[in-house]
Amino acid sequence: MRVIFMGTPDFSVGTLEALVQAGHEVVLAVTQPDKPKGRGGKMQYTPVKEKALEYGIPVFQPAKVREPACVEELAGYRADVIVVIAFGQILPRSILELTPYGCINVHASLLPKYRGAAPIQWALIDGETVTGVTTMQMDEGLDTGDMLLETEVPIGADETGGSLHDKLAAAGAKLCVETLKALEEGTVTPRKQGESPTKYARMLDKELGRIDWSRDAASIERLIRGLSPWPSAYTLWEGKTMKIWAAEVLDGDSALPCGAVADVTKTGFSVQTGSGLLRILELQIPGKKRMSADAFLRGYRMEPGTRLGGE
């Protein structure tokens, strides 16, 4: 097929590669505009732009995809289908209906679960044991189009947002190729979505990572894994931001209030939560790299009863 590919972050790159390797003619890559990065403010290409240029694929970076000039630009490529994966802008009907096969979206959840911008992280935070990828025929709603194909991906007990991102990106790339083949052969039947049984997977922000120690230990541990590597879970210690990168749930409780350090050993420390103790395994403080809890305790003093959190 002649494909217009629309995507922006790392999650999209594997699908672009898979389409090229499967023999599809990717005639255009549409991605978000470059942004300045770092202290020098040097313009940074999006991951999709970098990969497209490697393949010699033309790149188009409209600030607003709804502009008539943008639609006219896309129409000029006479594509058979538009593949969309984590593009970052809402598409108007004029683009959704631009090609014979419309716009096919690769979404990182088992729809209708976890519609929205951050399905990978919210599945972890909510304690799901299985997630997956769904391809759908896009409509004007937010992830509400008819479902085409899906594939399940189990969630490991130590899964992080980063590791699950990579698994789903690979699964999505394979599923997209299978979906285009099924569309060409007429072997796929679109299925309507029902009501979503989960809340909308809203975009992540740094405030989401602030640990509420009154919550139970298991939900805090899932938050830590779900927000790794970004935006990360954190608490306050002696007025400093302490990022928590890994922890484990312990049985039992102490008599101390939520957020208090319950015990300290040579290898780590545990914190009282609203229900259960959370043993901190890996952390990071300002100006330092990630470190194990025992490495932290070799350089810093942590006493039982110390309160984490606060203002």
TrEMBL record:
It is an enzyme of class 2 (transferase). It catalyses: L-methionyl-tRNA(fMet) + (6R)-10-formyltetrahydrofolate = N-formyl-L-methionyl-tRNA(fMet) + (6S)-5,6,7,8-tetrahydrofolate + H(+). GO terms for molecular function: methionyl-tRNA formyltransferase activity. The keyword Transferase applies. Keywords: Protein biosynthesis, Transferase. (6S)-5,6,7,8-tetrahydrofolate binds at S109, L110, L111, P112. It comes from the Bacteria. One of its GO terms (cellular component) is cytosol. It holds the Pfam family Formyl_trans_C. Residues 1-179 form the Formyl transferase N-terminal domain. The keyword Transferase applies. Gene3D superfamilies: Formyl transferase, C-terminal domain, Formyl transferase, N-terminal domain. Its EC number is 2.1.2.9. PROSITE patterns: GART (PS00373). NCBIfam families: fmt (TIGR00460). Attaches a formyl group to the free amino group of methionyl-tRNA(fMet). The formyl group appears to play a dual role in the initiator identity of N-formylmethionyl-tRNA by promoting its recognition by IF2 and preventing the misappropriation of this tRNA by the elongation apparatus. Belongs to the Fmt family. This is Methionyl-tRNA formyltransferase.
